[in-house]
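Minutes, project check-in

Agenda point 3 was the complex the collaborators sent over. CS summarized: two entities, 1000 residues total, and the question is how they sit relative to each other. Sequences were read into the notes so everyone works from the same version.
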Amino acid sequence: MKMRNLMALALAACTTGAIAMRAAEDGQAFEKIERGRYLAVLGDCVGCHTTPGGRPFAGGAALETPFGALIGPNITPDVATGIGGWSEEDFRRVMHEGIGRDGARLYPAMPYPAYTKVTRDDVSAIWAYLRTLDPVRNEVQPNQLRFPFNVRRPATSTWDLINFKPGVFQPDPAKPDVWNRGAYLVEGLGHCGTCHTPKNITGGDRGSEALQGALLQDWYAPDLTEDPRSGIGSWSIEDIVRYLKTGANSYDIASGPMAEAVANSTSKMTDGDLLAIATYLKDRAPRSGGAVTALAADNPRMVAGQAIYEDRCAACHSRRGAGVPSLFPRLASAPLVQSADPTSLIRVVLIGNRAVATSAAPTAPAMPAFGWNLNDTEIADVLTYVRNTWGNAASAVQPEDVTKLRARLQK
Amino acid sequence: MARKLPATDVVIVGLGWTGSILAHELAGSGLNIVAIERGPWRDTATDFPPAYAQDELRYHIRHDLFLRPAQLTMTVRNSVNETALPMRSWGSFMPPNGVGGGGVHWNAETWRFLPSDFQMKTHLTERYGEKFLPADMTIQDWGITYDELEPYYDKFEYLCGTSGKAGNIRGLVQVGGNPFEGARARQYPTPPQKQPYGPTLFAQAANEMGYKPFPQPSGNLSQAYTNPLGVTLGSCTYCGFCEWFGCGNYSKASPQTTILPVLVRQPNFEARTQCEVLKVNLDDSRKRAAGVTYVDTSGNELEQPADLVLLCAFQLFNVHLLLISGIGKPYDPRANEGVIGRNYSYQVTSSVDAFFDDKIFNPFIASGAIGMCIDEFNGDNFDHGPHGFVGGGYMGAVQTNGRPLQTTTRTPKGTPRWGLEWKEAVAKNYLSSYEAVTHGGCCSYRDAYCDLDPNYTDRLGRKLMRITFDFHENELKMSQYLTDRLAEVVQKMGPRQFEKKPRTGPYDSRIYQTTHTCGGAIMGADPKSSALNRYLQSWDISNLFVLGATAFPQNAGYNPTDTVGALAYWASDAIINQYLKNPGPLVRT
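CS then shared the predicted structure for the full assembly.
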């Protein structure tokens, strides 16, 4: 603590602006700072703004987009490399308007289209918390996009005209408080749609398809609508709460990017907020997908897939796809298994994957890789079988899809 | 010259069962813990996934999971008058290596010892008189009782999720369990595994003969189980690749499937793998351990100072480290003095092979610990007076595997060892033959011990450890007796022919029997005849504890792991609740 005070003094001595700003701050605003800390958890700020094993909030790992890489900047109060020289109003503009301190538009990897819904009070609390962090000197070059996407974006861009609707969340007076809290979290700080909402050609949300599932970084973030087959229609509110709190429920275990979201954010949320999120999610309409018919059991690809399944998969996932809660994900009637897009399934079969560990569900089981001893056709067949048996129904997986993903993952 | 690292509170040598248990228990008390492991990190999905976990050639024939003798081995001889030679390929036992240790490749047979096993010397002397025991037999009481250890057995079994049927709950004998076992506080965490045909038939025959057969307690689980740490195990698929293999589907109890997921989340725990501890360092007083020195794969020597040193390596390596480090007085068999290396013991197994015409056993439906057993001839469950030996063992139909390479050796006597006739015999008998087993204890003797070899050194110039061991008449008589009793039950199963294979001498270190080597730094009540007190604390160096079967004064007629696990919890309880509050000897002499 002494060290920090000295550093603060040193900073103050060399930056007049910093003195003025600090004078306006209340470093002992315990309630506000604590609230800000929790709000930063709700927003999973640490997820994008920290490298694995690195100092929290001091700059993140690359987020790969179709347009190139973006890196979460250093948001510790370091004057030279972080946001130490910012004012609270600078921070609010970033959160609410997506406009950086230099007046340029941010890239929406910073989910300001969601954060614009966060109340002014909450933004202020997050700011108060971030000001209390140890300043870390760490130069980050956030913009690593390819030309022409790396060109400075004007404050008023066509993209924002199409994709960005500024404005704080407005509660629906017809709905109970718990619902409104859930909507506020899901649409705002939780920024669930950043991964789970399909994107248009410019990378903006397709508003009419909110949370219907989307592809990101070769993971398919699944459908979160009430769809009984590919969505969470069969999950109860308790199932959703348990999944978010522990990373596992009787259906599934979080893995991939959701494993990080659980570890950093949802597992640290209060039960009240988890209940609110689940209440809101369960009250949304199912996606309007057409009926899907399962492939016939005697389809040659189904027959081939079944043989592979029984040899390679049944030892853990069990013969009828029931799995084991908290250990082996259930495949029968599993939403992710029946996703419109099978990318996540192909991915975990090809290169394996480890589930999240939380203190409530610490097992962290892993799916071994099969890419080295199953070829593309075999992987397509076994997934086609899994997607179309035990009551499941979904499109067949094509060997070409496996080939393409294999090539991308080998890069 | 070793580079000295910053000090830590606890250094643990070896991250197998006991290292994981101690690390987890002590991490809860807030101490900083560094575990140093000679072998690699091992993870189920990465290192033994179902896609190749059942590779008999790789794991059983080529010893993939085990320490490579070129890194470290030991020399062996049968008697004090011989020159020992180094083991250049493993045979009789399989020294583990890597995170999880023997817990990765065990069969998971999870037995408690009998109450009288812990007072063996006193019990046998009282019942049969001192003269009944051979003069060179050096068996001792353990310094603890079964009742003291019971809560810790319970803790280890509930960690593992052990599948079984209790035979005695708080003194009430339970139908279908082992009526000879010591009282346990509660039922096993999960019900017994389902029994294949062979064990079912054995149990029928045993029942008809008036014995009380019961399912062998198994660490290969009958159903999914979440242990008190919150870690979930799956249900065994009866693949029969347990001993020598890692379990690919999270259903065999191991450090990986029970503790490590929780341990690695502790911020005050650190594991250093591929680092081999060379010795325990003592301070200038030579009454206190100062830490350990280890070497990494680049050949860098590093010194890790610590306030508390826990030797959690495999039994043989714990003894080797004590000898190399000059801790405690080395045992001298001529004078029968000294404690390090004393009372080295083992296990005495035997079998009866039976060949049937009208029965199909499907031996490939197996698990490392599945089977039906009887305990009438274990420990002192029967009157040894007429027989002229002490000790015993469980026996039964334990269907551990039907692995294709290993099972080809089960052909009737007189079958050629290769060629057409052999192939036909293998094909004819694979499904319809059965091997029943006895699992006998092993007493300790004055001339069975470990010391440093005068002739052979390892790659770093350290003297190898020398094992001097042979089977004694007592054990050979016991094995013959057990095998005869087993054969009577097998005969009742109705085979065309059967062959008794009692253990015979001399001990041959090339032939696999079990990895249950025991003793060498035993626990006891007297520092003149034991290296450790009843809390597994060194009598000489109070901030040094030695875990594992190293502490067994002699071996009982059971697999050792349950007792090893129970002693680990017993010792960690003593460290946390007694030692840390008042560091120093926990037993005054």
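Noted in discussion: Residues 3-227+246-579 of chain B form a domain with the FAD/NAD(P)-binding domain fold (CATH 3.50.50.60).
Follow-up: revisit at the next meeting once the mutant set is ready.
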